[in-house]
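wait is this the right file?? whatever heres the structure
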């Protein structure tokens, strides 16, 4: 069956871009409304920081479970089915988030929303990768990334213009998800997937990844590549207000830092996509951007010696730009695997990366306890060095996939 090729402004790319808009809106929203929502629910002081980390961990756990589930469904039932069902669950859970009355309900619904949101970006990238010609995949991924800018700005300004009405922020997020459902109805299924759907080839078999040593390490490296991104987002930026306090920097607005970091991150995603297409290499682009990330990581902790809010905002933007490789490594993950396992990999990998954040947080918490370093700042940079080194090593040992023909299967 001949695979029809689509252009970079075709419906699959447009719908993928809008889906990434919703994805970024949600991922940024919890960190933005964390203080206002917990204050409204009667949480204050040290408990706010601890519960913030715990709720974020539950959300990431939902993304992890959802990533594996939707990945398997994407190969067994189709990429389009994942796009539809996952956003439906996310939309319902997000609207319900605006109705919570206590922290337990809050955590549970962030967990469910995480499960729903897990299928979004990976399924879109899989579909676009299979439907567009190989020379346009990187450009299409970069265009999808640009839509995240609007999701970032929307989350910040919805919270700001609503006078920190965090419940309204969740209602709007769920409403956008439902609006996206109507567009999803018109999306076509991948021709490459249709070619294998009704054959005897095993589809969406996660055990195929686990049973083969070579395939497992290929998959695991894809996960490790993304860890520096979520160290930056989940620790340095999400708790940048705490770091500002530790650095002695006053008048620092954490939601503003998050918004600026995500704007820069999405421009990084866009730049990484175009850059990889220009140099015809995914690996080299990843190494360059992680070099940028490392440079700003060093500058971030240099603020301990003296700095101001403007300097910290600027460095947060630099960290965002350097960690803007999410779309690139998801595209690379999709290109690593055959059609019968492609959605399983591309959907589960970014969510398992997010799922590693609770483990990174636990490591960070252990280091800063009296048992280890007994210093919030020192524990943070030690954690960062470990995670960034792991990311660099994983990139170096991963095969180049630029321009690869995706019409193949895993035996």
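ok assuming it is, sequence goes like this
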């Amino acid at each position: 069956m001949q695979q029809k090729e689509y252009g970079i402004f075709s419906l699959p790319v447009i719908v993928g871009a809008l889906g990434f808009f919703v994805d970024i809106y949600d991922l940024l929203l919890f960190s933005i409304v964390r203080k206002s929502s917990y204050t409204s629910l009667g949480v204050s002081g040290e408990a706010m920081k601890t519960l913030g980390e715990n709720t974020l961990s539950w959300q990431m756990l939902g993304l992890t479970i959802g990533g594996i589930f939707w990945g398997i469904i994407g190969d067994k039932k189709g990429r389009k089915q994942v796009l539809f069902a996952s956003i439906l669950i996310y939309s319902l859970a997000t609207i319900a988030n605006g109705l919570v009355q206590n922290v337990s309900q809050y955590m549970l619904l962030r967990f469910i929303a995480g499960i729903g949101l897990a299928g979004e970006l990976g399924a879109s990238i899989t579909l676009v990768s299979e439907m567009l010609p190989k020379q346009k995949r990187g450009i299409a991924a970069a265009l999808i990334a640009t839509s995240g800018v609007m999701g970032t700005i929307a989350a910040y300004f919805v919270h700001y213009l609503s006078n920190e009405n965090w419940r309204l922020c969740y209602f709007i997020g769920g409403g956008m998800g439902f609006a996206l459902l109507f567009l999803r109805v018109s999306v076509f299924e991948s021709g490459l997937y249709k070619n294998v759907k009704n054959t005897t080839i095993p589809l969406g078999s996660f055990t195929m990844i686990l049973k083969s040593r070579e395939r497992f390490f290929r998959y695991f490296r894809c996960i490790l590549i993304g860890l520096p991104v979520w160290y930056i987002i989940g620790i340095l930026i999400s708790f940048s207000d705490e770091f500002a306090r530790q650095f002695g920097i006053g008048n620092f607005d954490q939601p503003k830092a998050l918004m600026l970091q995500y704007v820069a991150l999405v421009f990084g995603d866009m730049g990484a996509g175009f850059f990889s297409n220009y140099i015809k290499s995914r690996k080299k682009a990843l190494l360059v951007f992680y070099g940028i990330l490392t440079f700003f990581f060093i500058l971030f902790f240099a603020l301990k010696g003296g700095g101001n809010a403007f300097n910290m905002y600027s460095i947060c933007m630099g960290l965002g730009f350097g960690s803007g490789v999410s779309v690139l490594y998801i595209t690379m993950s999709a290109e690593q695997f055959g059609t019968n396992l492609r959605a399983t990999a591309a959907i589960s990998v970014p969510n398992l990366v997010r799922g590693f954040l609770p483990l990174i947080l636990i490591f960070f918490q252990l280091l800063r306890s009296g048992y280890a370093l007994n210093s919030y700042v020192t524990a943070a940079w030690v954690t960062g060095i470990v995670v960034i080194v792991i990311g660099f090593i994983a990139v170096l040992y991963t095969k180049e996939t630029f321009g690869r023909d995706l019409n193949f299967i895993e035996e």
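Residues 11-396 form a domain with the Growth Hormone; Chain: A; fold (CATH 1.20.1250.20). so i think its the right one actually
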